[in-house]
Amino acid sequence: MTDRIVLTTGAGGQVGQALMELPPPAGWRIDGRGRGALDITDPDAVGAALADGAVAAVINLAAYTAVDRAETEPDAAYRINRDGPAVLAEACVRRGIPLVHVSTDYVFDGSADRPWRETDPTGPVSVYGASKLAGEQAVAAAGVRHAILRTSWVFGAQGGNFVKTMLRVGADRDSLRVVADQIGGPTPARAIAETCLTLADRLASGADATGVFHYGGSPAVSWHGFAEAIFARAAALGWRVPRTVEAITTADYPTPARRPAYSALDTTRLTEAYGIAAPDWRTGLDDVLARLTQKD
Ligand SMILES: NC(=O)c1ccc[n+]([C@@H]2O[C@H](COP(=O)([O-])OP(=O)(O)OC[C@H]3O[C@@H](n4cnc5c(N)ncnc54)[C@H](OP(=O)(O)O)[C@@H]3O)[C@@H](O)[C@H]2O)c1
């Protein structure tokens, strides 16, 4: 029997590159397309990409992820984060295949004092968050069999992320200031990629748990706590790190976009439906630092 194909968009991004390194699930082949090979906002290109009858699921990792820039580029953010997923969802409906779509903790306003559940009310406080929420709504409205995977604070060996920024900036400075009053769940890109592949496989095989699922790293931590963990491990691996990491408030570090103060995600629904537990970011961080240390 020929392998089924899982078409993966945004394959050149942080999670996309992590996914392209993974072995596909048994019986599958991954067709990963970067932005140059497939623009998700182009219905003709998406139709052509799905024309191969072996395509049995789609994973959408393409997104506009520049959170601050989105405040002044709302049209671009909505085109990619809302209209693109709508194009993909409609194409999947026509072909009768499922869509795994990745979304974000930034759909919430940050006011909770326990990890957010799928049933909690959304309330984005940024253009990026609002555009991602609109994308979720477009996917649900299209009537496609779908899993929307909300994740948070993504880090990996590839692409730009907080871990790599800390290592780069920390190498040149004696002291750093990092925000301590935003709490969330750092999530390894590779774990997200594995979960997307599992969901694509299970949905294509008829699994009936669909809708929104949360998947965020555990335990919840502040950016400051995360930075301290990064530097403690990096120092042991021989990296030059700052002597002090000062805890500051969000007010001390103004950014164009607001961020939720508390955005940890409760992964219980995904665990109950698919047996996938929240990843421990400390293990993921060890893996990523080991890989970055080898590269250097
Ligand atoms: N990064 C995080 O901390 C974070 C947190 C929560 C959720 N998420 C979500 O996780 C998913 C993956 O994020 P990521 O960190 O891998 O983002 P990323 O590194 O920015 O990758 C996104 C990719 O999408 C591509 N893209 C943009 N517009 C496109 C279009 N019209 N058609 C096709 N591809 C397009 C980008 O290409 P260009 O680089 O050429 O623009 C980029 O390669 C996204 O849905 C994101 O919203 C991310």
Give your account of this protein's structure.
The chain is an alpha/beta fold and 296 residues long. The protein has a single domain (4-160, 187-216, 258-279), classed as Rossmann fold (3-Layer(aba) Sandwich), CATH 3.40.50. It is 38% helix and 18% strand. The chain has 9 helices and 12 strands. The strands form 4 sheets. It has a 6-stranded parallel sheet, with helices on both faces. Strand 3 (55-60), helix 3 (74-95) and strand 4 (99-104) form a beta-alpha-beta unit. Helix 5 (162-170) packs across helix 7 (223-236) and helix 7 crosses helix 9. The longest helix has 22 residues, at 74-95. The chain is globular and about 55 Å long. The model has no long low-confidence stretch (mean pLDDT 97). Bound molecules: NADP nicotinamide-adenine-dinucleotide phosphate. The site of NADP nicotinamide-adenine-dinucleotide phosphate has 28 residues, from helix 1, helix 3 and strand 4. NADP nicotinamide-adenine-dinucleotide phosphate (NAP) binds next to helix 1, helix 3 and strand 4.
